[in-house]
Backbone:
């Protein structure tokens, strides 16, 4: 291949073949034993620890770090996994800088928190390397539960339900189990096919049947599931993508960022994956950052993220923003797209600067254009395919604190359900808590 | 998860982790929290005789030694026995034992050294439903000035006498808590055995002054410009305690008596070490005072994992396992030859091994111009100092020479086991045959 970052248009193989592996290697390499002990040593074993409170799954962080410190990382892993069965993935993708590590008392003391995320990965990696599964199934209850969606919420619920002795059938429209863990997370956060390895490890609990290619609303109806199962858990995520509502957004080269990320995750050979010379990403969340950074890593000459509000409003954390800029992504704050220009294919995107007055965003009238062979839309996902008759609030399935929907016998969790941030760790917590509530209500008699 | 159930001198507890008699066990509120957190047993803070309770100082009771990053390594205290009325403690103990029948509840006792005092209080405490007694012959501060605590524990005859009184006063197990502030731990241990003790527990705290304020020139902890020696405990005292436990465990006259190991137990590993050297269970105080009651959860999970990995099905299988390997210096194999080996992949080139060996030991490490450190086998006596000062665990290790291999330092091949008792340099050597 003779393509380079300067090759015009959208093309593959902009980098020498041998450089892709390094470009997409582990963002945070695993800690070795010595590094883990030194990192663990910094934990103060705080009482009623702030980190534990900040964790959506309430992992006993001081205890698991102490277990690492005393040479029993497997016990540490069990402490983690009891609360969060996807603790391995969460260790890689959690925005720890805005959760546990943000409130670490050593952040207050020295501006340097205990490396909780990396320690969690150390412990869970050690356990998974032994391929041992520390949980066993309770005796069969004879109850059957359908889980629609095999992402983090669905997997978490399925595991907990199976552990309690229920039989679970998990449905997912995609070919692989894992949901966003498999299709929606930047490649460098979970290299070496970790998502599938974790799924395989999780399935060791037994009692979970997977049916892929089955989508709610397309051959799979809630009514049928309710009739065939004792309970239903909906974890269908947010399958729709918001439109830009800018003129010309149907031009060639304009793509949904989630599709790009998914294609990239499923690619066997990154040198065959096309990317533009000049890439523009519109949006301010983690999806936008993941798309922007990976475009750059694939060899785009210039990548610009454009967010319509100010830096402080951006949902991608400060850390994520720094990651993007450190990889060479330029971030423009306070500008909204008005038109995509080009003859059939996208060539330029036109923006208008904005001003944010008490949350109300208005255009300033000042325009500018950015060259763009490729434009990624990352301005949020929406719920599609929610069963009819189920109560919706704020665009999501309305649920109680334990995931009950307005329909009896139907629970929901993860991104499709109301409440909580759209994070992997939140989805795991919601799946777990709904499973406990399903278990309690089915066993009530 | 391994079964940690322990039976110690007839007293059952769900795990071998007891809280030692100390501030954490002074009242019902704490003890309930401790049991909820998972502790297997509690030795209630030492009870004194009826009447006006003792008083404590109203300034600092504790002083401490810190390691790097302010890790608390040693704690010193000048607190006395419980300063709450006997009746209140007894009522609370009764309630707690009733609500936690599966946990061990031991009464620690310290009264004046006369038969009446002991024989009066022991039956009265037994009414609480407690599982046994621990005689506090250990506290080295305050009470010792009044002829109690270590003042008794330092006189073997008193230990024997009081133990006998208590055994006459109750059928419950009597544990004698020993002070380390003596010349030889075997004398008080033997006295406890002679007095009929069911078990010994050790060590109590070590007399200490933790530091001196160099502005006021007063020892810490300081009360109105003055200070007094207090009892030292915590991780820093563990090696002293381990040795004393092992001495009792391997001494023919005391080897049969159950031992409750005390002294700096902070992690599951510390506990396992005490068990291996002869203890039947362990008591903990400083770790709980530093980290809270929850710290026991790591001890439980860690010991359990260790037992599972080793295939041990009960705590008693660890107990005494290392005792046969504790011996006298004279029996150590002088033909066991090792050499230090530096793993160059692990080495971070700090040079601490070099400084230690070159300045203070045997000049057996070479430093190249580009800071590569290697061991000179013809100089290395295998002292282990380089291993101990190296900041990277596992970077420097000791390689054992096979039998027949030539030790480059002596030029002689490694021979069969041979110790000092048969060594030619020993004027008292006996014949190898």
Residues:
């Amino acid at each position: 291949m003779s393509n380079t970052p300067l090759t015009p248009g959208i093309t593959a193989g902009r980098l020498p073949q041998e450089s892709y592996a390094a470009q997409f290697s582990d963002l945070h390499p695993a800690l070795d034993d010595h590094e883990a002990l030194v990192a663990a040593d910094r934990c103060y074993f705080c009482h009623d620890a702030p980190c534990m409170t900040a964790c959506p799954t309430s992992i006993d962080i001081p205890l698991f770090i102490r277990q690492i410190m005393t040479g029993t990382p497997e016990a540490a892993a069990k402490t983690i996994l009891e609360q969060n069965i996807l603790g391995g993935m969460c260790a890689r993708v959690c925005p720890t800088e805005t959760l546990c590590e943000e409130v670490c008392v050593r952040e207050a003391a020295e501006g340097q928190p205990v490396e909780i995320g990396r320690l969690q990965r150390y412990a869970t990696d050690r356990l998974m390397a032994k391929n041992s599964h520390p949980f066993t199934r309770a005796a069969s209850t004879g109850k059957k539960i359908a889980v629609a969606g095999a992402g983090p919420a669905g997997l978490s619920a399925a595991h907990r339900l199976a552990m309690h002795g229920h039989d679970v059938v998990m449905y997912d429209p995609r070919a692989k189990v894992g949901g966003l863990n498999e299709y929606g997370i930047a490649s460098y956060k979970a290299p070496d096919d970790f998502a599938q390895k974790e799924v395989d490890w999780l399935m060791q609990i037994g009692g979970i049947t997977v049916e892929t290619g089955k989508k709610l609303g397309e051959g799979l109806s809630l009514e049928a599931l309710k009739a065939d199962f004792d309970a239903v858990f909906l974890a269908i995520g947010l399958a729709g993508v918001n439109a830009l509502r800018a003129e010309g957004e149907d031009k060639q080269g304009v793509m949904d960022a989630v599709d790009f990320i998914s294609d990239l995750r499923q690619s066997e050979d990154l040198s065959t994956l096309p990317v533009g010379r000049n890439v523009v990403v519109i949006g301010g969340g983690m999806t936008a950052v993941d798309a922007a950074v990976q475009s750059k890593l694939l060899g785009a000459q210039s990548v610009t993220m454009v967010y319509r509000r100010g830096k402080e409003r951006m949902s991608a954390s400060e850390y994520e923003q720094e990651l993007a800029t450190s990889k060479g992504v330029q971030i423009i704050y306070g500008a909204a797209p008005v038109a995509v220009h080009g003859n059939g294919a996208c060539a330029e995107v036109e923006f208008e600067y904005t001003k944010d007055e008490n949350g109300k965003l208005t255009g300033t009238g000042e325009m500018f254009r950015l060259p763009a062979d490729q434009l990624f839309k990352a301005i949020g996902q929406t719920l599609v395919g929610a069963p009819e008759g189920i109560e919706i609030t704020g665009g999501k399935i309305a649920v109680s604190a334990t995931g009950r929907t307005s329909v009896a016998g139907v629970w929901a969790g993860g991104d499709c359900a109301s409440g909580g941030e759209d994070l992997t760790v939140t989805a795991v917590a919601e799946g777990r808590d709904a499973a406990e509530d399903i278990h309690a209500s089915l066993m009530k008699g | 998860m391994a079964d940690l159930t322990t039976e110690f001198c007839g007293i059952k507890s769900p795990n071998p982790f007891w809280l030692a008699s100390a501030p954490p066990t002074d009242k019902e509120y704490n003890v309930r929290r401790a049991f909820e957190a998972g502790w297997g047993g509690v030795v209630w803070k030492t009870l004194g005789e009826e009447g006006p309770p003792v008083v404590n100082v109203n300034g600092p009771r504790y002083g401490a030694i810190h390691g790097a990053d302010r890790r608390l390594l040693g704690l010193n205290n000048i607190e006395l026995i419980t300063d709450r009325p006997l009746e209140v403690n007894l009522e609370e103990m009764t309630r707690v034992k009733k609500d936690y029948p599966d946990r061990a509840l031991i009464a620690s006792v310290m009264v004046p050294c006369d038969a009446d005092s002991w024989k009066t209080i022991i039956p009265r405490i037994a009414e609480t439903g407690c599982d046994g007694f621990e005689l506090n012959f250990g506290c080295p501060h305050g009470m010792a000035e009044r002829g109690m605590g270590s003042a008794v524990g330092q006189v073997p005859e008193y230990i024997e006498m009081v133990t006998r009184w208590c055994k006459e006063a109750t059928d419950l197990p009597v544990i004698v808590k020993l002070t380390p502030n003596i010349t030889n731990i075997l004398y008080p241990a033997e006295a406890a055995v002679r007095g009929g003790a069911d078990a010994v527990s050790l060590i109590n705290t070590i007399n200490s002054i933790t530091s001196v304020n160099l502005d006021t020139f007063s020892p810490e902890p300081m009360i109105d410009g003055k200070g007094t020696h207090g009892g030292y405990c915590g991780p820093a005292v563990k090696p002293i305690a381990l040795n004393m436990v092992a001495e009792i465990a391997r001494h023919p006259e005391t080897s049969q008596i159950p031992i409750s190991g005390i002294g700096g137990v902070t992690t599951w590993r510390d506990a396992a070490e005490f068990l291996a050297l002869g203890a039947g269970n362990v008591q903990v105080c400083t770790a709980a005072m530093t980290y809270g009651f929850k710290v026991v959860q790591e001890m439980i999970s860690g010991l359990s994992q260790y037992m599972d990995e080793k295939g041990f099905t009960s705590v008693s299988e660890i107990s005494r396992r290392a005792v046969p390997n504790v011996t006298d210096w004279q029996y150590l194999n002088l033909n066991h030859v090792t050499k230090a080996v530096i793993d160059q992949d692990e080495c971070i080139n700090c040079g601490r091994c070099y400084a230690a060996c070159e300045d203070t030991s045997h000049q057996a490490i070479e430093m190249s111009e580009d800071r590569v450190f290697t061991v000179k086998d013809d100089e290395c006596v295998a002292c282990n100092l380089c291993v101990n000062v190296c900041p990277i665990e596992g970077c420097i290790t000791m390689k054992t020479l096979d039998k027949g291999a030539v030790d480059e330092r002596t030029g002689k091949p490694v021979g069969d086991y041979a110790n000092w008792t048969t060594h030619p340099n020993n004027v008292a050597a006996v014949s190898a045959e």
Chain A has three domains: 33-129, 144-239+383-442, 241-377. The two ends of chain A are 67 Å apart (CA to CA). Residues 256 and 288 of chain A are 10 Å apart (CA to CA).
